[in-house]
Amino acid sequence: MANKPIVDFEAIKNNLSNVSKPIQVLNENAEITDQEIFDTFSDDDLVEFMKKMVWERALHEQTMNFSRQGRMGFYAPTEGEEASEMGTVLAMKKQDYLLPAYRDVPQLIQHGATVTEAYLWSRGHVVGNKFKARSMMPQIIIGAAYVEAAGVGLGIKKNKEEDTIAFTYTGDGGTSQGDSYEGMNFAGAYQAPVLFIVQNNGFAISTPRVKQTAAPTLAQKAVAAGIPSVQVDGMDILACYAVAKAARDYMVAGNGPVMIETLTYRFGAHSSAGDDPKRYRTKEQEQPWFEKDPLIRLRKVLEDKGLWSEEQEDKLVDEYKASFKEAIKEADNVAPDKVSDMLKRTFEIPTPEMKQEIDKFEAKESK
Amino acid sequence: MAKKTYIQAITDALDIVLEDDPKTLIFGEDVGKNGGVFRTTQGLQDKYGEDRVFDTPLAESGILGLATGLGLTGWRPIPEIQFMGFSFEAVDQIAGQLARMRFRFDGLKNAPVTIRTPYGGGTHTAEMHADNLENFFTGIPGLRVVMPSNPYDAKGLLISSVENNDPVLFMENLKLYRSMKDDIPDGKYTVPLDKANVVREGNDITIVAYGAEVNEALKVADTLAEKNVSVEVIDLRTVSPIDTETIFKSIQKTHKVVIVQEAQKMAGVGAQVASAIAEGAILSLDAPVGRVAAPNSVYPFALGEDIWIPRAKEIEEKVNEILNY
Ligand SMILES: Cc1ncc(C[n+]2csc(CCOP(=O)(O)OP(=O)(O)O)c2C)c(N)n1
Question: Does the record bear Oxidoreductase in its keywords (chain B) (predicted)?
Answer without folding.
Answer: yes
